[in-house]
Amino acid sequence: MVESGSLWGLFPRSLREFPIDLTLIIVIVVVTTLTTFVSVFQRSPVRIFFGLVFVLFAPGYAFIAALFPEDGTVLQSRDDSEGEKTNRRIRDQFGGHSLQTGINGIERIALSIGLSIVISTSFGLALNYTILGVRLPPVVVTLSVFTLVATGAAALRRSKIPPENRFLVSYHEWYAAVRSELRNPDTSTDVVLNVFVIVAVVLSLGVGSYVMVASTQDEQFSSIYILTEDNDGNLVAGNYSSEFESGESQELIIGVDNHEQRPVAYTVVAVEQTVETDGNETVVMSQNELDRFASQLSHGESWRFRHDLEPTMTGENVRVAWLVYIDGDVPPQPSLENADSSTYLWLTVSES
């Protein structure tokens, strides 16, 4: 029988020496991605836990690890209040004071949480100005790519530092350092900072938990939108033709997003209507069905299809609407009022 130590030796040296903390970051990214895109995990507590760690810790930790690959916990040996001696690697030989050229464990954790919030928010704002929008799949993908790139950079930078100066996660030393910093801070400023860090961590976890649970339980909807291609072939929400001649057509791209927290069978009914306005009320005078489209989507998936729009009705008040119905429940007379979701364009169609 081959011993476990011998089996471990079969792995490449680069894999065996890969930092354990960066390995955990990669595991968090992989598990979060699976719980986002694999339907069986989407409503499980695993998703909430790893989602919180992913958003509030992983991106910032990977970024800090890339910025500070060296061991910043450089303190002297001293006796703590319980008489235990805490060993540190480098000591100040002049005056007996401790040296610290980088960041210690508690600072690394605090900065990781703060930067994770900043990074996640920044990516959300950036996605808001793209056709992807602030939706769970693109947010997870962009944060995952950023975190994995930062993790790779951190591993590369650490490998170029001498082992004795390289940052290494030693859980016993981290625990002793954090406990010492909390119990015996050097200055009153450290006391304030420690309290601030603890409060920030608790608030972040609390707010994050509420948001994750609330979104998992309450955010159930479907959305539909209209896109066109610009001159460069990019999809944009605009550049719609509002004036047509009878027989003229324009290619549109219709998008549907599933946020129902479950798989859904979608039917999209495209209708054209002539309408009149009576005060604040819009009255449909006549309606004609143009086409139907259908697809099955898992939660978080998007569906885009092309529709060659060619109105057959003429007039100044022609409305073309795309009506979304879930689970195939299309009524005999589809309308904006009975659709689960809808979007529309106003057109002026003249005789050719």
TrEMBL record:
Keyword Cell membrane tagged: no
Keyword set, alphabetical order: Membrane, Transmembrane, Transmembrane helix
Record flagged with keyword Membrane: yes
Chain segments annotated as transmembrane: 20-41, 48-68, 109-129, 136-156, 191-213
DUF1616 domain span: 25-348
Lineage top rank: taxon: Archaea
InterPro entries cross-referenced by the UniProt entry: DUF1616, UCP018671
Identification of the protein by name: DUF1616 domain-containing protein
